[in-house]
Amino acid sequence: MTHPATSDPVSRPPRFVHIFFMDGVGLGSDDPAINPFASAHLPNLTQLLGEKWYVRPESGGPGRITTGRASMVATDPNLGVPGRPQSATGQAAILTGRNVPQLVGEHYGPKPNQAVAAIVEAGNLFQEVVAAGGTAALITPYPQRYFDSVNSGKRLLSSVPLAATSAGLPLMTAGDLRAGRAVSPDFTGRGWRDYLGYNDTPLLSLEEAGRQIARIAGAYTFSFFEHWPSDHSGHRGSLDEAARHLEAIDQTLGGLLDAWDNAAGLLIITSDHGNIEEKNHSQHSRNPVPTILVGQDHARLAGTIHTLADIAGVVRTFLGIVPK
Predict the structure, then answer these.
(1) Full DSSP string of 157-180
(2) How many domains does the structure of the chain reveal?
(3) Reported pTM
(4) 74 Cα distance to chain centroid
(5) The pLDDT of residue 9 is above 80
(6) Is residue 3, in this structure, part of any structural domain at all?
(7) Cα-flanking dihedrals φ and ψ of residue 76, to 5°?
(8) What is the DSSP letter of 5?
(9) Residue 324 has pLDDT above 70, yes or no
(10) Is 157 within 8 Å of 226 (Cβ atoms)?
(11) I need a labelling partner for 223 at 20 to 30 A (CA). Which of 32, 34, 156, 280 fits?
């Protein structure tokens, strides 16, 4: 499973899409005793979308928002299947454009079972972009212990790296992080030093991390950044800690939005299921998730999104690619 460091793409594509993925982030109530969004200071997302954008429609939220620069859609992660949405099937739905929970008969996760893996490997956005002659990358890096664990059979790939590797793409490593070709899932890279023992990896501010994501995304036809600590913050920790986590996401998005090329790039910010927005329990929720589009024609494209399975169609339309 170990791969050499990914080489930089040769030239900037004329159009490109980046998915900034936040695991476990839903739209909830406007109750600050439950929802950390209600107490967090989020100036960048508020400037982009307006006040109370984080409130679900059932609690009086807007459901759909269109501003000069962006659109947001309250997106259904349930896909007509009972139970609490899970990461494997939700992420697979985003990347394949198929109703994966319905196809396998349940919400499943966190890692794909054989049925989910077969759907992901049968066709996904990474594969389609590469087949169309474009460039693609999962820009979240992995430490050597991750590759060792996968190679030993102790760890399964989650849906996102499974999709990338099924397209023949190498997963990024510590070498890519050092070279500025990848951004740590914790944004700053502090975790690589404090918990993984990589004392020579770079440290970034939150704003720098956002700008770096924008720079890397502009070099690929399609790229994907996976921020999983948001789901961890939903399952564990205090309400205040969750609010601080959301503020870190907002600061990172501030840097990303400042550096984003609206003319050529489509930025999609989304999630697989709710979690962090309800801190009165530690489970996933059935709340809608926010899907935010930034770039040319964002309002028309957002109008086609209702469920997680619709996001892949937006990517295909913007890039002019046909699914396998």
Answers:
(1) --HHHHHHHHTTPPPB-HHHHHTT
(2) 1
(3) 0.96
(4) 15
(5) no
(6) no
(7) -75, 120
(8) P
(9) no
(10) no
(11) 156
The DSSP result for 81-146, as a single string, is --S---HHHHHHHHHH-S-HHHHHTS---SS--HHHHHHHHH--HHHHHHHTT--EEE--B--HHH
pLDDT of residue 3: 37
3-class secondary structure per residue, 207-259 = HHHHHHHHHHHCCCCEEEEEECHHHHHHHCCCHHHHHHHHHHHHHHHHHHHHH
CATH of the domain at 273: 3.40.720.10
Q: Which helix (H) or strand (E) holds 185?
A: none
Residue 93 has, within 13 A of its CA and on its CB side, a CA count of 33
Range of the domain at 34: 16-319
Distance of CA 199 to the CA centre of its chain: 27
* Residue (of 49, 190, 166) closest to 116 by Cα position: 166
Token pair for 144: 């050597």
Q: State how far the Cα of 324 lies from the Cα of 151, in Å rounded to an integer.
A: 29
Q: Is the residue at 144 inside a domain?
A: yes
> Tokens 């927005």 identify what position?
277
Q: Which long-range contacts (CB under 8 A, 24 or more apart) does 76-79 make?
A: 76/288, 76/306, 76/307, 76/308, 77/26, 77/271, 77/272, 77/273, 77/274, 77/286, 77/288, 77/289, 77/307, 77/308, 78/286, 79/307, 79/308, 79/309
Nearest-angstrom CA–CA distance, 302 and 319: 15
Inside any domain, residue 6: no
Helices 159-166, 87-96: inter-axial angle, 10-degree rounding:
40
| pLDDT tens-place string over residues 217-265 | 999 999 999 999 998 889 999 999 999 999 999 999 999 999 999 999 9
Please state, in angstroms and as integers, the Cα–Cα distance from residue 137 to each residue in 182, 219, 277, following that order.
9, 10, 29
Note whether residue 124 is domain-resident.
yes
Which pair of structure tokens corresponds to residue 38?
A: 């209600």
pLDDT of residue 227: 97
